[in-house]
Amino acid sequence: MPAMRIAVAGSSGLIGSALVRSLKADGHQVLRLVRREPSGGDEVRWDPERQQVDTDGLLGCEAVVNLAGAGVGDRRWTEEYKRVIRDSRVLGTATLATAVAALDPAPRVFVCGSAVGYYGDTGEQVVDEDAPAGEGFLPGVCVEWEQATAPAREAGVRTVLPRTGLVVAREGGAWQRLFPLFRAGLGGRLGNGRQYWSFISLTDEIAALRHLIATEELSGPVNLTAPHPVTNREATATMGRVLRRPTPFPVPAPALRLVLGEMAADVLGSTRARPTRLTASGFRFTHPQFEDAIRAALNKSS
Question: Is 144:86 a contact under the CB 8 Å cutoff?
């Protein structure tokens, strides 16, 4: 991919910060969208809640990547925090999509994050990008999130919607919490353990996002998940084996519901997503298996 001028929203998060590092390392000019007063020439001010962005700062960008959004697992899902989850995605996306549509010249691509939560609880059924949206809070958020890209798409800008799975990384996300538990010998399956987890290593997530930026034939939804999703029971056994720790403490579903409230439905739900469009476009995974992803996150050899 030749050197490009690329704007990234959500650049301080797990995925965004890793993407910025990767792009800069290869000589791309990266602009970070920030909510405060910019402190350098590589920052652009925006306010997603007020739907404001410094469009002058985005001039000349060939790609705009939106990874902004409040953490789904950061807090218990009160009605107030559910609003924060939704608005941080939908309002921010609408703001950037409108800005992208107004730019002249227009960027070549608008990549806007989404999630496999779009599909909801699909049990053992394999789903790809052609599957319909599920029911519930997270699928509803994902539908609105993706629809908010309409201004860019209608302006003729190639718009890609990476539906990301559970990102396996030590630095953040679910595994930042899980690894210490398993190291302490306190890990165990969640509920009955039969629910599928569609995962992707952080390395493959960043490579896939860059692939979406560079691959002109890709638009619309693209699942960013490894090709071999695993059940929670399989994931638990693998982590115990890699970390050489017992996994004797299953967490019953009623206990999860008591502790997590409505969010427990997402933890106990099953999404068996496959990256059909990603692999068809020629992308090759560095960590296709769950154990590969776990060892990469821990920097452990086989």
Answer: yes
Separation CA 47–CA 141 (nearest Å)? 20
Asked whether the beta carbons of 65 and 19 are under 8 A apart, the reply is yes
Alpha-carbon distance 72 to 62, whole Å? Answer: 30
Contact of 168 with 175, CB cutoff 8 Å:
yes
**Which is it for the CA torsion 144, 60, 68, 18, positive or negative?**
positive
Q: What is the pLDDT of residue 302?
A: 45
How much is the pTM? 0.94
The CA distance from 4 to 214, in Å, is 10
C-alpha to C-alpha distance for 61 and 108, rounded to whole angstroms = 8
* CA 93 – CA 151 distance, rounded (Å): 10
Which pLDDT belongs to residue 40?
85
Count of residues for the chain? 302
Low-confidence ranges of the chain (pLDDT < 50): 302
Between CA 191 and CA 269 the distance in angstroms is 10
| CA-based nearest residue to 23, from 49, 45, 42 | 42
54 contacts 74 by C-beta, under 8 angstroms: no
Note the pLDDT of residue 300: 63
Compute the distance between CA of residue 55 and CA of residue 100 in angstroms, rounded to an integer.
8
Burial string for 28-43 (b: 16+ CB within 10 Å, else e) reads: bbbbbbbeeeeeeeeb
CATH tag, 5-298: 3.40.50.720
**C-alpha 205: how far from its chain's center?**
8
CB neighbour list of residue 46: distance below 8 Å, 6 or more residues apart: 9, 33, 34, 35, 52, 53, 54, 95, 96
Where along the chain do its domains lie?
Answer: 5-298
Region for residue 92 given its phi and psi (left: phi exceeds 0; alpha: psi -120 to 50; beta: otherwise): alpha
Q: Which residue blocks in the chain are alpha helix, DSSP H?
A: 14-25, 55-58, 79-102, 137-147, 150-154, 173-183, 202-214, 232-243, 253-260, 264-268, 276-280, 290-298
